[in-house]
Amino acid sequence: MDACIRNNVKVIGKGEQPMVLVHGFGCDQSVWRYITPGLLDTYKIVLIDQVGVGDSDCSGYNSGKYASLEAYAADILEVYHELNLQDAILVGHSVGATLCILCAIQEPDRFSELILLVPSPCYINDGDYYGGFERADVEAMLATMQADYEGWATTYAPFIMGNPDCPSLEQDLEELFCRANQDIAKEFARITFLSDYRPMLSKLTNKTLLLQCTEDTFAPPRVGAFIHEAIPTSMLLTLGATGHCPHLSAPIETLSAISAFLQQPRTMTDNFSSAINQAK
Q1: pLDDT tens, 27-71?
Q2: Catalytic residue among 23, 28, 49, 94
Q3: Catalytic residue of the set 28, 75, 172, 216
Q4: Of these four, 74, 160, 226, 244, which has the most CB atoms within 10 Å of its CB?
Q5: Distance CA 48, CA 73 (A)
Q6: Cα–Cα distance measured from residue 24 to residue 98, given in angstroms and rounded to the nearest whole number
Q7: Predicted confidence (pLDDT) per residue in 149-178, tens digit
């Protein structure tokens, strides 16, 4: 099956440089709808649905093949090659950010910049590392999902969104979770929340923007600081937004940060923060 069919790829925009948008767990390409209008005139936007969500084709799915995040990253690279993209910008949210890291490590010369929204290489606390959760908490969450997926979605969507004053956003996220293929989502959640990609971070050589939120249970500020220290070519910016989905809850601020970063020279600079402030 063609990768673009399997992953329901859509290409939009008037620009020349490709920008590949990689969504997070349980979501689909529709989560980018608030920021894509601000990018259409400048970039060629490539939207994908990971297998198991949106309008992706699940007929080729098997748990043996998709037993690690590397398999989902391989899907992205296959789309990349099928479209013959060059010098693409990779934008990933949450676990989608991890997929972007894996893609860029495997084929660094094919990508220019990476923009990682609320990334986390490991969700489980380990010694001095604070990922946000004890392993028992993650196992309990996965058990809840296994027993009652829709109940899990109802309980955790507000927790993940982290914007109690915007119930419509919580409802949108819950609906996205519930539209996903539940069997695939359960397996994808397990490999997402039990994986540890901390050793991979130092292998990333592409210029990278890390966007974290002021308050985020699933990617606490300490995780952002850890990633920033581990990736020598990274810049870290803390948004004023709260929760784990700033592209939905604070799209203007998120878009401003992305645009300011991409307007900087490809060499590292010291005035990135000031450029962000000017873009707001």
Answers
A1: 999 999 999 999 999 999 999 999 999 999 999 899 999 999 999
A2: 94
A3: 216
A4: 244
A5: 12
A6: 9
A7: 999 999 999 999 999 999 999 999 999 999
State pTM to two decimals. Answer: 0.93
Burial of 179 (0-12, 13-18, 19+ CB in 10 A): middle
Give the pLDDT score at 267.
53
Please give the backbone phi and psi of residue 86, each rounded to the nearest 5 degrees, phi first.
Answer: -135, 140
CATH of the domain spanning 3-279: 3.40.50.1820
Structural contact between residues 145 and 186, judged by C-beta atoms closer than 8 angstroms: yes
d(CA 129, CA 20): 30
Q: Is 28 a catalytic residue?
A: no
Q: Smallest Cα–Cα separation from 50: which of 109, 1, 7, 114?
A: 7
In the chain, domain spans: 3-279
Is 55 a catalytic site residue?
no
Question: Is position 244 annotated as part of the catalytic site?
Answer: yes
Catalytic-role residue among 172, 244, 249, 256: 244
Q: How long is the chain? A: 280
Phi first, then psi, for residue 9 (nearest 5°) are -75, 135
Return the half-sphere exposure (C-beta side, CA atoms, 13 A cut-off) of residue 135: 6
Ramachandran angles phi, psi of 122, nearest 5°: -160, 125
